[in-house]
Amino acid sequence: MMDSVTGLMSGVAGGGAQANEGVEEGGGVRRRVPPVELKLVPLEEGSEVTLNSDMMILHRQMDRRKAAVYLTLSGLLIFTTAFLLGYVAFRGMCRLCGNEGDLIPLSDAAGAQHSPEGGVMYMAELREMLKKYLKEERIENTLRRVSRASHPPGSSEGNAVAREILQNLQNLRMDHTWTDSHYATLQFPSRTKPNMLWFVDSEGAELEEIPLDSEGYCAYSATGTATGGVVYVNYGRREDFEQLRVLGVALNGSIAVARVGGSVSFAEKVWLAQEAGLVGVLIYPDPADVPQDPRRLGLHSNAVISEHVHLGSGDPFTPGFPSFNHTQFPSTQSSGLPIILAQPISANVASKLLSQLSGTACPRGWQGRLPYVQCVLGPGFTGPGERRVKMAVYNTMKPVLLNNIFASIEGKIEPDHYIIIGAQRDSWGPGAVKSGVGTALLMELARTFSNMLENGFYPRRSLLFVSWDGGDFGNVGATEWLEGYLTMLHLKAVAYFSLDQAILGDDVLSVYSSPLLADLIEGAIKQVEHPKHTGQSILSLVQRQGGWRNIVKPLYLNSGAYSFTAFGGVPAMQLHFTEDARSYPFVNTQLDSVGRLQELLQGRLGSVGRAVAELVGLMVLKLSHDQILPLDVTCYSNTVQQLSSKLSQHTAQLQSRGLSPLWVFSARGDYSRAAKNLQEAIKNSDIQDERLARLYNTRIMRVEYYFLSQYVSVVETPFRHVFNGRGDHTLSALADHVSLLRSAPHLFNEARFRRQLALFTWTLQGAANALSGDVWNIDNPL
């Protein structure tokens, strides 16, 4: 045993000596360590301790296992410590990380945001940043400055407001600021000859002058004089004129008296009256539609509401092309200019006229609330002799230099694609709602996004902030700019948000939008607190009213967003907060002041402005950062499906005339498949691939433009959009015409219907082909 122990120990000692043999750290001279001398103490006899080689090996194995365990534990401890340190450091760079669904893609190519400290910024952080920098008091202060006095285009007050806005934008962190100027022809009241109204006898001799408000007028009315009987036409809608024809009321050569409202603009009322053969239109605010008790925030009975009557937008003397000051164009004019007279009148003047009418009693529902008026239709007057009314309009045309003001923040990845936010700047009166609200919101959003830039916000796409001139005359400044860039705007503009008249109350939110943008509103109203109901989101209140889709409505003619979609082919949206119980009656009057708006809102102007700014800001954030543009390209499939259903109801009548709706059905199917195929292709693609993402976004951006009919003249029919436009080429015109097969078959025009069907079908088919992508994806039977 001793031999074995001695051998074992000597082996260990030898191994240790060999292990110590090596190279000195600083030299390279090898040295040998002397062997260690071990002395063994002999064991006493009788001792119970016994050693053998097996026991020694067992103890060494146990020591090695313990060492391995200790090493493993030490490694885990070091790894855990390092992980925790790294996690804490990362969280420091991302202070407001949200849920996984709120994350903007992390790669630069996907539009991720990086703070100046180098951390990744999430959408939740961008939302908080937007809310942090929006200031209610700034919205109120800007609104008060802009609405100090009347500031129409070309006036010294208007130019002063323009200079102030330009200076403020130049003081922000913008990449570019500039102005875009146009000479446009605008119409104003004559300074020497006021517009007049008289009672006259059968020979035309003036019997009595009826005083008019000298400041009230309808821009772009025809000028001259007109004489005739007076016919009450309710709101002057198409259905109102049709009912008058059914009742046999003599319209030709008469002067219409129409109420403000009825969801039709002044221009539409005048156009329909002109079609019906009338020679003039007088438009008044009825107490049933517009509050008229000054003690309860209403108009006084002598107040008038002014509005332009050009059935179109832009300068009516350069239709379809821009009125640049350095370019000469041949003399022409818009087909939407009226050839009859138009003038606003007060409720008192309307009462004086309508209380003396004779003739057929009004249809049910036409009775207003004018005092001393029993509703009859005219055109004659009670009393002896034959009396008529004579009206005279002496408005004058004037060339005015308009200045649109621009500021931009360039996108970091797609700078040539931009989201546009705009507002009207001019106003006939103080214009607190008409122009002040939109301008205040525009300036506050520009300032907020500028501050966000300084704190790590870098948009993927560019942001464009625009103050438009000439808005009171039919969005002249905006339309002239659109006309100048019509051939390329659909390749550049992602969407347009109009801030005009956004605050008319604080109760009910209405959204007027292109269908492509409608889905954006749901995500935004989830995030924004209702200005009147603290602690509740706008969505929670909207859901009680039947859901968010009920607040989304089609764009209307006088909307600041309408021409962008119907004329320019750019998806557009406009928001309004209104009152549930009462309306704000002062728009387009000299009484549209900040004080009256604050009174209506009971001091909540700042909070309502903040809510609107947040809504628009959140939608702009999403459009400027999503890798793939969040526009719903399938939305128009549902609209065409409704037409298909209507055509199917008339299949028998159409076939009996040799007509077939199969063309439309086929085009609708092609468009639906193209839209779904595009969605599937995006879903199954690597959208981090910048080239592929840009191809998809280009196709998405052009969808609205595809629906501008290429088969009608932009000069004669400026609103060429087949869904949102106006004219015989539109879906609504086609649907109205086909309905005549049942309601009035003798009025159905087969040749006209064939043309309508062809124009609409080929526009829809062209949109389907373009959305499909390359030509080999369109017609491939194999």
Could you characterize the architecture of this molecule?
Belongs to the peptidase M28 family. M28B subfamily. GO terms for molecular function: transferrin receptor activity. This protein has 782 residues and is α/β, with parallel strands linked by helices. The protein has 3 domains: 143-182 and 399-625, Aminopeptidase (3-Layer(aba) Sandwich), CATH 3.40.630; 194-393, 3-Layer(bba) Sandwich (Glucose Oxidase, domain 1); 634-772, Transcription Elongation Factor S-II, Chain A. Helices cover 38% and strands 15% of the residues. The strands form 5 sheets. Strands 5, 14, 15, 16, 17, 18, 19, 20 and 21 form a 9-stranded mixed β-sheet that branches. A hairpin with a 5-residue loop joins β3 and β4 (120-121). The radius of gyration is 38 Å and the shape is globular. It starts with a helix and ends in a 10-residue tail after the last helix.
List keywords for this structure.
782 residues; alpha/beta; Aminopeptidase; Glucose Oxidase, domain 1; 3 domains; 22 helices; 21 strands; membrane
What topology emerges from the helices and strands here?
Blueprint: H1 2-19, E1 22-23, E2 30-31, H2 53-93, E3 113-114, E4 120-121, H3 123-133, H4 136-146, H5 156-170, E5 176-188, E6 196-200, E7 206-209, E8 224-228, E9 230-232, H6 238-247, E10 255-259, H7 266-275, E11 280-284, E12 341-344, H8 347-354, E13 388-393, E14 396-409, E15 414-424, H9 432-453, E16 461-468, H10 476-484, E17 493-498, E18 503-504, E19 508-513, H11 518-527, H12 538-544, E20 552-553, H13 562-566, E21 572-578, H14 594-601, H15 605-625, H16 635-649, H17 651-656, H18 662-683, H19 690-701, H20 703-706, H21 731-743, H22 750-772
